[in-house]
Amino acid sequence: MRWMCAVVLVGSLLGSVSGHAEVQQRRYGVGGMGYFGIGGQGIEWGSLPEKLRQHGYGEISSWGMLIGGGGGGVIGSLFLGGEGYALVERKAMGAFGQVRMSGGWGSLLVGYTRPIGEQVRLHVLAGLGRASLRVMLRGAGVLPFDSLLQRPQGSVGMVTGGWLLQGAVGGEIRLIAGLFIGVRAGYVLPMGWGALTLESGEGVPGAPVVRLRGWAIRVVLGGAGYAMSHGRDGN
Known about the structure:
By secondary structure, the protein is of the alpha+beta class. It has a single domain (2-12, 33-138, 154-224), classed as Porin (Beta Barrel). Helix content is 15%, strand content 56%. It has four helices and nine strands. Strand 2 and strand 3 form a beta hairpin.
């Protein structure tokens, strides 16, 4: 998935900065970080919830759970990195059948970072990335094989996706041995998303526009290889 690619990219960034000496870290604020994150993301379903209710499917939430991670490098007050998250599959059941939603996104990050004392660091970040969503509709019960041959549309998957912009603010508190815990909160804005299409790429007349849009909040836990405060000579 895309978020895995982002984490691999971040790993290479961390490797490139890990060879700097501690005196450089203290004098210039050079170093790297990596983290695991979990949180929530707003989803804009358009007319899909109403259509599901009308046709006997269950309710679907406008809030999805995120699991992923990321990281990056710090050079003075500049932060460069990336992150990726998968949406935990959500399932809604109804009398007629069920709907399942999944997806994920990956984003490159750039921003301003500043230490506050010895234990706290704050970030202001902007990101550009790609995302995708998948909606699976399935009728109630399991059809016998002969019925599936007559009605293969008993289960159908639809997808959508596109570019996204995000802005976020966050902070971290240093724990022990370079470990930190922090929080990031921001807003995700989609660009160029269209209506749901079949997984084969065929359009679906009357399909709603579904996209990631809204507030995203994440708690992160990771490790950092830079000094929380810089500008000193290391003596």
